[in-house]
Amino acid sequence: MQPITVWQWSPWGLLPCLLCSLSLGSPSPSTVTEKKAGSQGLRFRLAGFPRKPYEGRVEIQRAGEWGTICDDDFTLQAAHVLCRELGFTEATGWTHSAKYGPGTGRIWLDNLSCSGTEQSVAECTSRGWGNSDCTHDEDAGVICKDQRLPGFSDSNVIEVEHHLQVEEVRLRPAVGWGRRPLPVTEGLVEIKLPDGWSQVCDKGWSAHNSHVVCGMLGFPGEKRVNTAFYRLLAQRQQHFFGLHGVACVGTEAHLSLCSLEFYRANDTTRCPGGAPVVVSCVPGPLYTASTGQKKQPQSKLQGEAHVRLKGGAHPGEGRVEVLKAGTWGTVCDRKWDLLAASVVCRELGFGTAREALTGARMGQGMGAIHLSEVRCSGQEPSLWKCPYKNITAEDCSHNQDAGVRCNLPYTGVETKIRLSGGRSRYEGRVEVRTGGPGHLRWGLICGDDWGTLEAMVACRQLGLGYANHGLQETWYWDSGNITEVVMSGVRCTGTELSLDQCTHHSSHITCKRTGTRFTAGVICSETASDLLLHSALVQETAYIEDRPLHMLYCAAEENCLASSARSANWPYGHRRLLRFSSQIHNLGRADFRPKAGRHSWVWHECHGHYHSMDIFTHYDILTPNGTKVAEGHKASFCLEDTECQEDVSKRYECANFGEQGITVGCWDLYRHDIDCQWIDITDVKPGNYILQVVINPNFEVAESDFTNNAMKCNCKYDGHRIWVHNCHIGDAFSEEANRRFERYPGQTSNQIV
C-alpha cells in the first residue's frame, strides 16, 4: 500500500500539498496507536486502556503477527529503546502486570535485557523470539516522554478496497502554467496511475465530488465553474482519461474513499462525449488575500457560538475550543473522530481533517469542558449542529482534550526560506529568497531586534514547529558563500504565516551591526511549553498589607516598590501592598526552562538566591480605560515544580543550586507572603480598577501560545479594603464578555456577585 499524497501545481514544479493520515481498517486511535516500523522489519504500537497517546502496552508485529513483551527482567533501559522505536525521544517509566490490560496472540519477547543505547530492540538480549513461559497477565508497558524524535511521522496510509489506488492527486491550471499565484484554486483534477498522470472523466461528476477534492486540497468549499469555456479548451488539447464513475457522498476524507472506476488498459473508447473534470475551490479567509479574491463578509448570528484552535505550531492545527455562554472551553475526546474534526476544519476555513487528535496532543486547556461525545455526519456547517452530550465534572478531564490537524492549501512559502550551518535541520542561520523571476537570490536577515516572535514565524514557515530560540548572533554557524544581508527591521506579531507578512524595511537595508556574525538564526522544536496562571487562586488570596519600611530594604533593592518609595522617610512609615498568590501551570508539551543557563544567573545577596530571569511576571493596576496607575514585577528567582499532576514526577528544584524549570503537568507556586509578590498601591486613589498579571511578558522563553499569558480581574478599592473578583485568563471570554468586563462600573458595597 502506498501513501496517498495530494499535489498542487506550483511555479517550481509539482509539490506535495499534504499527506492524509487516516488509517481505515486499523484499530481505533483511542485504543491503539500504530507507529512506523523500526529496524529489522518489525512494527511497533501502543495498545490498551485507559492510557494517553504516549503510553500503553507494547506490541510488536513480527512475521505478520502482533504480540506482546513479558515483564520479566524488564527495565527502564528497555523502555528507552522501545520508546525510540515508537518515535519518542525517551521513556519516563514502564509498567508491569498488564496495567493496560492483557494482550492477545504471541508473547514475542521474555527476559528482555537492554543497555539503553541499542538502535533496535532486536539488538537486546532475550530468550529468543516467541520463547516465553509468561501469560498475558505479565504484559509490559511503557510511558514515553511526549516529545517526538526529529523527522518522525506517523503512518499516513489510507487503505481502500480497490485494486488500483488513487495514490496522488493534483490540481493543475488549464491555462497560465507556472504564472498563477499560490494557492491554485481552479484547474483540472489529475490522478497519478502506474503509467503516469491522467484526467478524470466529468460524466456523472457532482458537486459532492468537488467538495471532497477541495477538502483534500485544503479548501472549505467549492463553486461552479465555467464548463463551456473548459469544454472549448478541451477540444484543442489531448487528454488521457484514467478514472470515471466517481460518486462521493461529500463527507469522505479522500477521493479514494468514494465509489469510482478505473479504465482498463484495453479500453479504446474513454469518456465518450465527456471532458476532463475541472474543479474550482473557495479559499478560507486566511488564504483569500494571497489569491487576490475579495473577502466575503461572514455573517454570524448574534449570540452564535464560535470555534477556535489553540496551541498548534501551524495554521489549521490545535486544541479545539468552543464558545458557550460567553466563555471558551474545550471538547472531550470521547468518540472524537475524523468526521467531527472535518466539520471543525471546514468551519474555520480549512479543508477536511488530516487527523482527529485525542489525549490532549495539542496541550491541555484550563477551565470548562463544554462538549463530550460529539457525533457528526460530516455535513454540518458547525460543530454546534452535531449531536453532543453536556458534560459534568466527573465525565472528562483536560488530559482528554480533543484536537485537529486540517488539510491546508499549498502556498509554497517554505520554498522562500532555509536554514544553513546548523547541527541539524531544526537550527541554523536564516536565509530568505528575494527578487523576481530571473533575479532570484538568497540572502541573510539582519539580527537587530530579532527575537522569539520573529523566530516563531520563521519556524512556522519552515514547517519545523515551534521556536526554541531567536538568535541575534550566529557567528558559530558557517554561512558558506551567502554573505549579503537582504532583509532588516523585521518585526512580527508571531501569528504571520511567513516573514514576508511581517513589517520590515523595504528596499533600504539598515543594520546597526554589520557582518554575517550578527545575522538572524533560529532553533526550532516540535514541542513547546505553555504557561497559564491559575486565576481563581489570585481571587481567593488577594488582600492588603501595610508593611513597615524597615522590612522592605531587600524589596527596594530589587525595585519591587513604587518610585515614590525612594523619597520616603526610611526606615519610618510603611507601604501599602496588594498581595496575592500566583500558581503558574505548564500545560504545554515541553518543559519551561529559563532563557539563560545557570552560569549566567545573578546572585542577590540580600535575599540569598539566584535570579534566572530578570522579569518573569508583570503585575499592574489599570484604570478601566487601560491607564496604568501602579505596577510590580517578579523575578524568577526560583522556577521549580512545587506540585504536579498525579502521574507526573517533579524534575526541577531550586535547593542546592539545582536546575530550574517547570515540568509539563506541574506548577510553580509563588505564595502571597514572599517578597515582591505584590503591587505597591500606596499612591493609588480609591476607585474601580483592573488587576492584570502577565507571565513571560517580554517573550524571553518560547511558548506554544502567548495569548493566554495574561490574567485580569475587576477590583474595587475604597482606600481601606479591596475586593478582587471576576478573575479570568485574558482570552477566556468572548469579545462581548470582555467589553462588559472593561466597562464594569464597580460595586457600592462588598457584596460582590
Automatic annotation (TrEMBL):
It catalyses: L-lysyl-[protein] + O2 + H2O = (S)-2-amino-6-oxohexanoyl-[protein] + H2O2 + NH4(+); N(6)-acetyl-L-lysyl-[protein] + O2 + H2O = acetamide + (S)-2-amino-6-oxohexanoyl-[protein] + H2O2. Mediates the post-translational oxidative deamination of lysine residues on target proteins leading to the formation of deaminated lysine (allysine). Belongs to the lysyl oxidase family. Residues 44-145, 169-282, 307-407, 417-525 form the SRCR domain. SMART domains: SR. The keyword ATP-binding does not apply. Disulfide bonds join 70-134, 83-144, 114-124, 248-258, 332-396, 345-406, 376-386, 492-502. The keyword Mitochondrion does not apply. It is found in: Cytoplasm; Nucleus; Secreted, Extracellular space. Gene3D superfamilies: SRCR-like domain. This is Lysyl oxidase homolog. SUPFAM superfamilies: SRCR-like (SSF56487). GO terms for molecular function: copper ion binding; protein-lysine 6-oxidase activity. Its cofactor is Cu cation. The lysine tyrosylquinone cross-link (LTQ) is generated by condensation of the epsilon-amino group of a lysine with a topaquinone produced by oxidation of tyrosine. GO terms for biological process: animal organ development; collagen fibril organization; inflammatory response; negative regulation of T-helper 17 cell lineage commitment; tissue development. Coiled coil: none annotated. GO terms for cellular component: cytoplasm; extracellular space; membrane; nucleus. Its main location: cytoplasm. It comes from the Eukaryota. Residues 1-25 form the signal peptide. InterPro entries: LOX-like_protein (IPR050912), Lysyl_oxidase (IPR001695), Lysyl_oxidase_CS (IPR019828), SRCR (IPR001190), SRCR-like_dom_sf (IPR036772). Keywords: Copper, Cytoplasm, Disulfide bond, Glycoprotein, LTQ, Metal-binding, Nucleus, Oxidoreductase, Repeat, Secreted, Signal, TPQ. Its EC number is 1.4.3.13.
